[in-house]
Known about the structure:
Largest sheet: none
Order of helices and strands: HHHHHHHHH
CATH class of the largest domain: Mainly Alpha
Structural class: mainly alpha
Amino acid sequence: MSEVIEPKRHAIVQAATQLFLTHNYRSVSMDKIAAAAPVSKATLYNHFTSKNELFAAVVGELCTSLLQTLTLSEDDDVEHSLQKIAASFVELLYSADGLAMYRLVVAESHEFPELGQLIYDNGARLALIQLETYLQQLQNSGCFYIPDTRFAADAFFSLLKGDLHFRCLLGIQAAPTEAEKTALCESAITFYLRGILHAAQS
């Protein structure tokens, strides 16, 4: 049964993603999503009871690769682990869909504040929690000094955003190339590791 249902769910989420990003949240109806999938309205509502729930699934789908990467162990090589996290985060952050979704939520959040909560709960908050858990494992190992793991997790992601992400959102800067994304990750990781390693050795 699941082999039949899951492709339909995926088709619904894909159709909703394109409609939300092409138009805007308020102008996309469940009827339009059903027609674009294409599935019956009964099938659509069998998977998602509301547009909010479907929007949350769209955000979750965009964040899946990042959240999977963040499933790390204290036994992993720290620099390699941070490279995987940074690469996935940057790929999502600067992708065309990632930037468009960010703009969409900012544009709609005044009239639909629940959208901001949805994207935070299904993306940023989960990523922060998982990275914070990993950093706590490093702190417990005694090799690193990270007394405020929540701040440290936020700081790592912030190093990868900064002014560049803001300029990309405004459309005054093109999204970084693969080489530029690699350089950004390497610079952020070098700077970050220098801080937590130095603190542990002091």
